[in-house]
Structure formats: structure tokens, C-alpha cells
Amino acid sequence: MPFPVTTQGSQQAQTDLAGPKETDCLLTQKLVETLKPFGVFEEEEELQLRHNLATEKALTL
Prior knowledge:
It contains 2 helices and 2 strands; from the N terminus they run ββαα.
């Protein structure tokens, strides 16, 4: 589902409730494949570690 359009901090109604088109999915996959060699995506272990650290910090506040 697309994110709502926001303007100057106020939320507006979504412009489209339809899912992504097939061409959108293909372009997204091409983008992911292009960016992977540059290391811009976290591995699952890195994501879990960051999540756990953020959770621990939030609990100490």
C-alpha cells in the first residue's frame, strides 16, 4: 500500500490504493540488483543487531 502524501507536516488522503504495477516491480528489482554491489543493504544479522541496540537504548530512557 502506498504511503500517504504529506505536505508541510500535515497528512492528506492517499492518492492511490492500487498496488504496484508489474513494471514498478521490475524496475525496483533492477535497482536492487544495481545497488547490491555497493553494500547499501543491511544483512539480516546487521539489521537484528541494530534493532536490538535500539530496543535496549529505548528501555533505558
